[in-house]
């Protein structure tokens, strides 16, 4: 009979038990020349360059254990870093992950987290090739993604020129709609609302569109992590241009079922989520006007001379997320 | 007159102010093809592979702001990751750093931290090429190092064979001696004691000895982060061998002034610090017996058939650091 304490925790396993348990669950892909277990991993960088991006995710700030399962936290943490690499036009090859874990964290939560990382990496053929485990009162994830540019020039934020078009691949507003539903504490009992909450818990970045955009000749690109207006502001500043968005072009995003259903439920303006909500990790790119874009890219505006990002006919309010405000 | 509040904090600057302030202080070396400011950095990987290692450092667990200045925290955080890459036989090229910062952190502390990272990278010609900033109640550092193997095979933990010799480059016991002095709260008023405390605050890894060992034909190598006995245990297990250490060979380490002075002050056994103290980030390597070792490598034992790490004539007690015990 187990009465007092049935849950196996991270503290029960100890540091090396945790490391062994995690690494046993991580398949290693072709790009990994040396995986977990030594001082460093060795990853293939076939064109002699490696794209690298890192993010820190803190429990209570980037995720809540009462709102998201370990599996979803793992998928989201992997996704946001893999998307950063894809936004350079690179193919993600590997992650390395530093884990801060409370000693009383159930091992089942850690197993879920690991599975989430492995599955999201599997979507793009990448692997978790190494990491570090330490004790912390909160769950903290330090995630670094590596990627291979395949001989292509990296797509920067600074190449947008007047006359180019602005396009988006992936979702906008889902994560913000789901977050608003969770914060409001409303009953999530329809497919549309459930999809919005799922969108908050687990983004779905259009990874392949990154290399695709680079091959199509994109002049600028980034992933939408803090909100489209704010993130396009980085492109406008880096490129020294004005970006004019067409509100009518966002109908495809505002009428997507999860966003529309959540807006109706909360009496909110879905365009606000679409323009200012972060964490969907869509890709926003700028292309010369003559480029013929595939269906995965939705044109939402154009580049003009000047500065700043404007939405025609609309006052812009909140512009996204500052981690210290 | 400034009465209530004279200290500029991270919260005053905001996320983008912090990022701009940090990046303005970071010189970029030759290996950096694209530095901070985009979704990812791009680092040269001239031989088509990249060595990559990551660590998470948590305030209160890996450093204390009342014991170490921001500058020393930056140097130490950089050093321990650069040493991991060096321990593969690679030349460190770049770091990316995720920073979790309290809003009330003085900007002066952040400036010091940044300078520490930049200076430690400068020792090996590497650069902080990118990062991420987010708010956190504690200072959290997620540090990832990249390195170039220069066409050499990575030196793993698994290549030690009976008859090989075990050697150490760098310091042992300094960080443990300094930590013991700080914890005891004794007056640190002699050059030897001050040097021990400095050794705790700032390791001095023998970076160049990593590539040197690879070129000399080292069969196994790692950096000493958790204590020599514990870390050599990884080599013994991975290689399927027994490692026999000669206590007399450690005299050069136990009589080093900082270690000897601290041991005398506290009535402690210096060999315990030398064998079990972590955080000096020495390199421990195994070489075929016929290799002629330069002076930077001190032979401390040999490899035999069997398992485990033993110190001839000595019972082994505490074996190093487990982050969950």
TrEMBL record, chains A, B:
Query: What residues bind ATP, as annotated?
Result: 131-132, 157, 225
**Alphabetized GO MF terms:** thiamine-phosphate kinase activity
Q: Where does substrate bind?
A: 62, 279, 321
Recorded metabolic or biological pathway in which this protein acts: Cofactor biosynthesis; thiamine diphosphate biosynthesis; thiamine diphosphate from thiamine phosphate: step 1/1
The entry marks the following residues as binding Mg(2+) 1, namely 54-55, 132
EC number assigned by the record: 2.7.4.16
* Annotated PurM-like N-terminal domain residues: 37-147
Top-rank lineage group of the source organism:
Bacteria
Q: Where does Mg(2+) 4 bind?
A: 39, 53, 84
Give the keywords, sorted.
ATP-binding, Kinase, Magnesium, Metal-binding, Nucleotide-binding, Thiamine biosynthesis, Transferase
- The residues the record assigns to binding Mg(2+) 5 are 226
Q: InterPro entries given for it? A: PurM-like_C_sf (IPR036676), PurM-like_N (IPR016188), PurM-like_N_sf (IPR036921), ThiL-like (IPR006283)
This enzyme catalyses: thiamine phosphate + ATP = thiamine diphosphate + ADP
- Enumerate the CDD domains for this protein: ThiL
Q: Which residues bind Mg(2+) 3?
A: 39, 84, 223
Q: Which residues are Mg(2+) 2-binding?
A: 55, 84
Q: State the protein's purpose.
A: Catalyzes the ATP-dependent phosphorylation of thiamine-monophosphate (TMP) to form thiamine-pyrophosphate (TPP), the active form of vitamin B1.
Instruction: State the similarity comment.
Output: Belongs to the thiamine-monophosphate kinase family.
Give the note.
Reaction mechanism of ThiL seems to utilize a direct, inline transfer of the gamma-phosphate of ATP to TMP rather than a phosphorylated enzyme intermediate.
Give the HAMAP family listed for this entry. Answer: TMP_kinase
Q: Protein name, please?
A: Thiamine-monophosphate kinase
Species of provenance:
Nonomuraea salmonea
Name of encoding gene = thiL
């Amino acid at each position: 009979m187990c009465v007092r304490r049935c849950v196996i925790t991270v503290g029960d396993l100890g540091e090396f038990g945790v490391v062994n348990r995690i690494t046993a669950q991580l398949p290693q892909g072709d790009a990994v020349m040396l995986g977990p277990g030594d001082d460093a991993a060795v990853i293939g960088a076939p064109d002699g360059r490696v794209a690298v991006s890192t993010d820190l995710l803190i429990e209570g700030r980037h995720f809540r254990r009462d709102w998201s399962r370990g599996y979803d936290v793992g998928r989201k943490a992997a996704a946001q870093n893999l998307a950063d690499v894809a936004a350079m036009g690179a193919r993600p090859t590997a992650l390395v992950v530093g884990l801060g874990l409370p000693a009383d964290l159930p091992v089942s939560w850690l197993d879920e987290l690991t599975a989430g990382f492995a599955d999201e990496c599997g979507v793009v053929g990448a692997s978790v090739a190494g990491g570090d485990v330490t004790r912390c009162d909160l769950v903290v994830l330090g995630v670094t993604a590596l990627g291979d540019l395949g001989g292509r020039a990296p797509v920067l934020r600074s190449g947008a020129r007047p006359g180019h078009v602005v396009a988006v691949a992936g979702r906008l507003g889902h994560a913000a709609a789901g977050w608003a539903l969770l914060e409001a504490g409303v009953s999530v009992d329809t497919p549309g609302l459930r999809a919005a909450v799922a969108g908050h818990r687990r983004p779905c970045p259009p990874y392949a569109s990154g290399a695709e955009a680079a091959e199509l000749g994109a002049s600028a690109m980034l992933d939408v992590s803090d909100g489209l207006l704010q993130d396009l502001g980085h492109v406008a500043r880096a490129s020294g241009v004005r970006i004019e968005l067409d509100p009518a072009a966002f109908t495809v995003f505002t009428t997507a079922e999860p966003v529309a259903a959540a807006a109706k439920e909360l009496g909110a303006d879905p365009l606000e989520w679409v323009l200012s909500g972060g964490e969907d990790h869509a890709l926003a790119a700028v292309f010369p006007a003559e480029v013929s874009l595939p269906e995965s890219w939705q044109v939402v505006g154009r580049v003009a001379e000047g500065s700043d990002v404007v939405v025609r006919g609309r006052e812009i309010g909140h512009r996204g997320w500052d981690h210290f405000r």
